[in-house]
Input
Amino acid sequence: MSASSSQIGIPAPATATQAGATDPDGNLAPLLVDADGALITSAGGSGSNASVGPTGDPVPASATLVGGTDGTDLRGIKVDASGELQVDVLSSALPTGAATEATLGTLNGKVPSGLTVTSTRLLVDASGTTQPISGTVTAVQATGSNLHIVVDSGTITTVSTVTAVTTVSTVSAVTAITNALPTGSNVIGGVTQSGTWNVGTITTITNTVPTKEIIASTATLTNVASSATSVTVLASNANRLGAMIFNDSTQVLFLKFGATASSSSYTTALGPGAYYELPTAHIYSGIIDGIWVSANGNARVTELTA
Output
């Protein structure tokens, strides 16, 4: 084998043999190369290389194997079945675990509709700052004595200010409300009174307040002799629940709610044998005086108390 010949895959020879080819006239002519050793071809003439064509022309039907040196040996350039050049990346500038175009594409296919993966962040809405969340979210405050712990314990000991509470299913005990309830209607459930309560002015009671009627259980009977001058028929009594007066006389009796009755200053006049009962809607508890036209008979008085 000539010293200028070599096989593909082994180091290039140190010497070379000039190569030639037949020109269109049938004569032997040397192959032309440039200063870098690249083969010079010509697009003109019927004897041109069938695998070479001008830029912009259709791809030639034939091809020439292109090779290159790996620094020592001659190597053929690799392409895949589609004719695309294959490039092996021996080292990458990306850090370990960095996303590639392929992995970003895979991630973008898995995110929910409406979210977009870019090269630097996950876009969530038009503002790029809000992430919608569905399902159960648990929020725990950092401090030890927070509302979450106090409510979960079943007892609210003190709440200084509550702006609005729409629904509380169960509260075992509220020991103190330090600030006034807000203006308007505030509905509080059943309250059991214990000790002394100081209640300020109540301006409105919207519901019916149940009351118990006080029934008189004691009747005190007295007889007052008739007189032509004013006499006391009933003394003032704050515990009075009712009173009845019967004029047991043949003369007219003038009764007055107050002191010193006369025929011109009286509340009502009772004829002989007449009967009068104090109105029950508003029991008068003050003094009642009386005077007759002339002294004759008595006033039969009954006073009712609890």
Notes: The longest strand covers residues 218-225. The two ends are 148 Å apart (CA to CA). Helices lie at 101-110, 147-152.
